[in-house]
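---------- Forwarded message ----------

FYI, see the Trehalose-phosphatase record below. Original note from H. follows.
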Amino acid sequence: MDLKSNHTSPVLADSSPMNNTRLGIHSALLPYSHNGSAFSPTLFLTIPRRRAGILDDVRSSLFDAMKSSSPTHNKLTKESNTETTLNDVDLAYRNWAFKYPSALASFEQIANKAKGKRIALFLDYDGTLSPIVDNPDHAFMSNAMRAAVKNVAKYFPTAIISGRSRDKVYEFVGLTELYYAGSHGMDIMGPVRPSSTDYKNCIRSTDKQGKEVNLFQPASEFLPMIDEVFKSLVEITKDIVGANVENNKFCVSVHYRNVDEKVLEVRPVLNWHKGKAVEFLLESLGLMNCDDVLPIYVGDDRTDEDAFKVLREGNRGYGIIVSSVPKESNAFYSLRDPLEVMEFLKTLVMWKKKTAP
Ligand SMILES: O=P(O)(O)OC[C@H]1O[C@H](O[C@H]2O[C@H](CO)[C@@H](O)[C@H](O)[C@H]2O)[C@H](O)[C@@H](O)[C@@H]1O
């Protein structure tokens, strides 16, 4: 087993302390977390490109290394219960909110910046549009949230960028008027733009409604390997009560939320992430490098940090982190939970209606 990152192989990455782990790269060199726990250092373990026994030598050393590098859900819960009082938590959140002010409380500031500009909206799914729940198949968004997203998409081009497979996240959201990027941006269905066909692996296709679209799948060569990894992980975890392996097409999540022990999420080592997906979609929408465009990205976990970073660099737009606990972020603003996200979307619409000529 190689400890270095290898740009042609999938890797197993250390997990977030609370949920699942992912196999990631570059700025995603950190584990991601939905519950706002502090990000822990990441362990990267590459799997060689051989087919047979792909996970054999990974298992024992990986689990040991992961155990020591980040605590389990139970451990964190226990520690936070004994050492932290509610007031400490409140105080810490308030201090944190100085650095990442509430996007609702600071809406006027955002509106001032957006004056005369076209907003492009990017939304993560889990933990942003839907609350985090134990069963990943039950992470439904509310009808009220769906209505808010549908409404906001009438006024601003809106895309969902999720770690889920594109089909799965579309199934959850069910709105045809949006653009969808699944597998952490490795599977994008966007509008047809001639420039995006410059990308390798970008092809013309049709969506479920028969509309012509661009389909971009930069990790398509990894598909057979990801399938193999998925099957291996199903086999490895079959006797672990509560473990659940999710095939997200170009990446795999192994959920340990309901297990005492750690598990993994796997995706190809590829210089592609949610930040790149934002740029790709902006370009596809003809909104890239336009002074009169203000991209806003709302997301809750480590994988969203790539998108926040892309927007922060060059002061291009705003990242909004969804978190009810303090955590370091590249975002500018914050929202506590999906309910506040819904409120924010509604506020955007009201503002647009009020200011529209
Ligand atoms: O990019 P996202 O849309 O935020 O997707 C990231 C992962 O979200 C899902 O897992 C998380 O939500 C589950 C449902 O609430 C929860 O049970 C799990 O513990 C969370 O990690 C999804 O199941 C993963 O495949 C995505 O990668």
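H. also flagged this: The pocket of L263DTV3 is lined by residues 19-20, 34, 124-127, 132-134, 136, 139, 162-164, 246, 248, 253, 255, 257, 301, 303 (CB under 6 Å).
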